[in-house]
Amino acid sequence: RPECQAWTGTLLLGTCLLYCARSSMPICTVSMSQDFGWNKKEAGIVLSSFFWGYCLTQVVGGHLGDRIGGEKVILLSASAWGSITAVTPLLAQLSSAHLAFMTFSRILMGLLQGVYFPALTSLLSQKVRDSERAFTYSTVGAGSQFGTLLTGAVGSLLLEWYGWQSVFYFSGGLTLLWVWYVYRYLLSGKDLVLALGVLAQGLPVSRHSRVPWRRLFRKPAVWAAVISQLSAACSFFVLISWLPTFFKETFPDAKVSYTTAVPPLQVTRPTLPCSRLHGRPSPAGYRAV
């Protein structure tokens, strides 16, 4: 039980830092556009390029989690995206092609962060009991809102006091500290080396029973989940990406930290209570999956 609590808290913090790194660019977009002369189209390319990579590694992340362990996938990807976030200011200054460098780094960030939640789902499905899975996943997932809040509050102050570069140093540095903690205290270095060895061998196809995809996609509940996730993700990520720019341009005297904190703060309120309801037996006798 203590180990489970330690991992839950650690993964909550990891999800928080995931969104700290992810929302650093939206917070800094206005300042970076002024420094590099980006117009709205170019800023939109940089912001949206993250999702070009993000959508490509969802299935890969789940497969890797099943093969080598979700905690190892999370640690390896976090070490990479934390490093990229920390060196983003340096990449922007490498040459005059800063737009190309920023776009490429955001695509790479998306590729690396795309494995996080599938690997997390794989990890929790193997390590957490069915009766506690919904609450644990919701607790860990709430870190996404806390991360957005943290970047909106602390990142906005760093942006005002020390410039946009400090926001990337802050979120990237915290992520690398988290990686060091997980590697040092929660994960065996030997296990990580073995996981890298499995990756080097090319990930042989699992011999587990095949998933009945056709039958699953005929279920209305599956499509309801897909549509609800699509709708929620579209609205949420539009807010994360463009809300700082909107308030900065529309209300230039307003504090960005206050204006960007409202949506994620409201999202956190129903998250844990709803997960508790999900964990209760259905009155109609349906089984939760």
From TrEMBL:
GO terms for molecular function: transmembrane transporter activity. Residues 1-23 form the signal peptide. Coiled coil: none annotated. One of its GO terms (biological process) is ATP transport. The keyword Signal applies. It is a multi-pass membrane protein. It comes from Macaca fascicularis (Crab-eating macaque). SUPFAM superfamilies: MFS general substrate transporter. This is Major facilitator superfamily (MFS) profile domain-containing protein. The chain crosses the membrane at residues 43-61, 73-92, 104-123, 135-158, 221-243. InterPro entries: MFS (IPR011701), MFS_dom (IPR020846), MFS_Na/Anion_cotransporter (IPR050382), MFS_trans_sf (IPR036259), Sugar_transporter_CS (IPR005829). Keywords: Membrane, Signal, Transmembrane, Transmembrane helix. One of its GO terms (cellular component) is membrane. Residues 7-289 form the Major facilitator superfamily (MFS) profile domain. It is found in: Membrane. It holds the Pfam family MFS_1.
